[in-house]
């Protein structure tokens, strides 16, 4: 592809080039690919169709000279009568005294502005001398940050088309263009900058959105391919006898979904490809069990494993449950921020000399001074809580380990294929047998006394309850329930025999741990907590989850919280206290009571709140598309993904000239990727 500097466009000198470089425009290609951010529709309407106080465009003939009155220092007001059809309309413009010269009697003008029905007057923000036919009714608006005037910019684009339009390369092979009835590239580009009507603009967008998404998916597929093929020679032996014995000895039979996931992970491990896989499954679906099998399988061939989790409490619980599962079979070390000094040094030594088989930790695991003897498998739990960089550091830690990401927050398919298109995916979509779904109710706060009675009844059956409040401090702004107040309220309202604990973010780690420990040991009947309990903590005896101000949480987060109960044999309950004002809020609470399927909730959350809210913008990993919107264009996204998969494995890529551009693009992506790993 030719890279032409903008200075090759006639009329563009060094000064202009410098100015527009501030918009990121250096080449002709950049210029052409700077699309309008929106369009203004100037459609001339019949004067009787105009609506008071709305924007309108009128075409008329100037009846008399314009009158300008000056006021203030620099302000002025121009009025001119024009004849529109059989009506005389008064045009008013502010600070356009200069227009007086153009608005001479008998001249045809087109004005756009706000229509005043009562005064038969229009306050114009745009005017143009001449008839509307001279100009298309859709005007592009560019974001130019005052670097260049919009008129000059349009001229530039137009000039670029004149000079170089014939050299714009087609990027999409005719097969796909015909299949989806897409405009060719040049027509689409021309129409996005200079649309003649709405229909044409739509077609242009459709073509360019497909192109944008196809390129994105090609990139993802290229990276996926790359993860698979680079670092060949990492095939691991698996001692099937030992691993099968381990599985046999688990206190339960694997579900079919767990077996399938383990099968997929296993084939990654023994293949010479490097694993780069995401394991999704609802809370309690048995991901940790699958992770344990995977870890055990590399440890039995004298490699090390590491598992990284987002919080210390979770690291401690994980270390504990792995310890229970593995017993003496595996040497486990816990590495978190609170492991310091001499102890940390000792652990680091034992990791480096290979004495430790499995390290469970927080991001303390990816510090520079942590060196493994032979790291074979890394597991990242609750992976979306880690930044992309942290994930990358871990992946790149010596030895090119296989990497398995896990998440209990099911990711809507649309987001999964955009954010994680470069990963393989395993899904555990089945709960272990005998698990009773948590009964979920949505109530208003006024029924609190009844809720407390209900908790008391459960406590009498020796069960436990969580009561979740969103924040620990009074916040006037947010009017959020105060966990401390709530705790005191329960202390007063509940019988003395009921012991209540309070867990919040202000406690030290040790205090939190102590509190969780007491709850886990059933020394506390009720735990009032902020969302610090959200992730991972496992107390099978807890059967009630009460969530205050539930409307403030995302559905996936509520689902996570709900997953803290229903972990044992007894029937469990989730009570959402919420008084949402809007329809969306009501709908969200309703859905919570209707389904216990995290994948459905995730899709609903995405639909109701948009991708930004799903993980938080930063973590969603969504690229900033210029035209495409994954939440709206998800069908195209899926189509593009399938096409990318086909294209990347096709011989046509190197054999057919129509695929030349795509082939070049893929090679470029690959080169960038290789550079990233130097
Ligand atoms: P996750 O990590 O997906 O939240 P876990 O692996 O922690 O789920 O499993 C949740 C609970 O279910 C644990 O107590 C675990 O021992 C148990 N469990 C896991 N797999 C099964 C199974 N196939 N049958 C019965 N219980 C299981
Ligand atoms: Mg888990």
What does this structure look like?
With 678 residues, the chain is α/β, with parallel strands linked by helices. It has four domains: 100 residues, no CATH class; 93 residues, Nucleic acid-binding proteins (OB fold (Dihydrolipoamide Acetyltransferase, E2P), Beta Barrel), CATH 2.40.50; 189 residues, Rossmann fold (3-Layer(aba) Sandwich), CATH 3.40.50.300; 157 residues, P-loop containing nucleotide triphosphate hydrolases (Rossmann fold, 3-Layer(aba) Sandwich). The protein has 24 helices and 21 strands. It has a seven-stranded parallel beta sheet with strand order 11-12-10-13-14-9-15, with helices on both faces. A hairpin with a 2-residue loop joins strand 4 and strand 5. It is globular, with a radius of gyration of 32 Å. Bound molecules: adenosine-5'-diphosphate and magnesium ion. The site of adenosine-5'-diphosphate has 15 residues, from helix 9.
């Amino acid at each position: 592809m030719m890279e032409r500097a903008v200075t090759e466009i006639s009329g563009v000198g060094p000064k202009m080039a410098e100015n527009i470089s501030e918009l990121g425009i250096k080449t002709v290609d950049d210029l052409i690919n700077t699309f309008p951010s929106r369009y203004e529709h100037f459609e001339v309407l019949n004067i009787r169709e105009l609506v008071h106080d709305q924007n309108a465009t009128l075409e008329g003939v100037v009846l008399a000279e314009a009158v300008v009155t000056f006021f203030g220092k620099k302000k002025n007001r121009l009025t001119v009568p024009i004849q529109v059809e059989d009506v005389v309309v008064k045009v008013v413009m502010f600070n356009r005294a200069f227009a007086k010269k153009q608005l001479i009697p008998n001249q045809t003008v087109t004005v756009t502005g706000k229509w005043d029905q009562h005064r038969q007057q229009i306050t114009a923000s745009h005017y143009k001398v001449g008839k509307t036919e001279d100009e298309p009714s859709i005007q592009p608006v560019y974001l130019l940050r005052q670097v260049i005037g919009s008129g000059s910019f349009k001229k530039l684009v137009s000039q670029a088309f004149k000079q170089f339009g014939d050299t714009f390369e087609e990027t999409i092979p005719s097969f796909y263009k015909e299949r989806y009835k897409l405009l060719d590239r040049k027509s689409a580009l021309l129409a996005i900058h200079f649309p003649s009507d709405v229909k044409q603009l739509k077609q242009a967008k459709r073509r360019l959105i497909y192109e944008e998404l196809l390129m994105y998916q090609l990139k993802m597929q290229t990276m996926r391919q790359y993860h698979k093929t680079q670092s060949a020679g990492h095939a691991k032996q698996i001692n099937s006898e030992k691993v099968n014995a381990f599985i046999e000895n688990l206190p339960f039979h694997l579900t079919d979904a767990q077996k399938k996931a383990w099968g997929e992970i296993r084939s990654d491990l023994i293949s010479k490809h490097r694993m780069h896989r995401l394991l999704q499954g609802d809370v309690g679906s048995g991901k940790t069990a699958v992770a344990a099998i995977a870890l055990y399988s590399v440890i039995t061939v004298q490699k090390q494993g590491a598992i990284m989790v987002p919080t210390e409490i979770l690291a401690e619980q994980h270390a504990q449950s792995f310890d229970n599962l593995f017993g003496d079979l595996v040497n486990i070390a816990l590495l978190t921020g609170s492991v310091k000094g001499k102890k940390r040094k000792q652990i680091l030594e034992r990791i480096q000399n290979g004495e430790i088989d499995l390290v469970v930790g927080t991001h303390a695991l990816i510090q520079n001074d942590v060196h493994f003897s032979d790291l074979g498998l890394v597991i990242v739990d609750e992976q979306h809580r880690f930044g992309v960089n942290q994930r990358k550091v871990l992946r790149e830690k010596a030895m090119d380990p296989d990497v398995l990401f896990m998440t209990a927050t099911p990711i809507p398919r649309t987001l999964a294929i955009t954010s994680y298109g470069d990963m393989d995916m395993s899904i555990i979509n089945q709960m272990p047998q005998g698990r009773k779904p948590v009964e979920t109710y949505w109530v208003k706060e006024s029924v609190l006394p009844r809720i407390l009675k209900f908790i008391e009844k459960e406590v009498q059956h020796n069960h436990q309850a969580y009561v979740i409040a969103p924040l620990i401090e009074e916040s006037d702004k947010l009017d959020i329930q105060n966990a401390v107040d709530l705790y005191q309220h329960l202390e007063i309202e509940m019988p003395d025999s009921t012991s209540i604990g309070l867990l919040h973010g202000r406690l030290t780690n040790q205090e939190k741990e102590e509190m969780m420990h007491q709850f886990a040991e059933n020394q506390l009947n009720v735990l009032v907590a902020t969302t610090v309990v959200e992730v991972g903590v496992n107390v099978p005896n807890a059967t009630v989850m009460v969530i205050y101000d539930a409307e403030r949480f995302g559905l996936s987060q509520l689902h996570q919280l709900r997953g803290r109960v229903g972990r044992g044999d007894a029937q469990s309950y989730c009570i959402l206290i919420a008084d949402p004002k809007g329809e969306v809020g009501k709908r969200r609470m309703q859905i919570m009571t209707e389904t216990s399927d995290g994948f459905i909730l995730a899709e609903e959350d995405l639909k109701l709140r948009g991708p930004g809210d799903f993980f938080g913008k930063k973590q969603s990993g969504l690229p900033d598309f210029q035209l495409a919107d994954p939440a709206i264009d998800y069908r195209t996204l899926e189509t593009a993904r399938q096409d990318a998969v086909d294209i990347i494995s096709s011989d046509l890529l190197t054999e057919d000239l129509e695929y030349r551009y795509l082939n070049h693009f893929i090679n470029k992506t690959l080169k960038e990727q290789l550079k990233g790993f130097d």
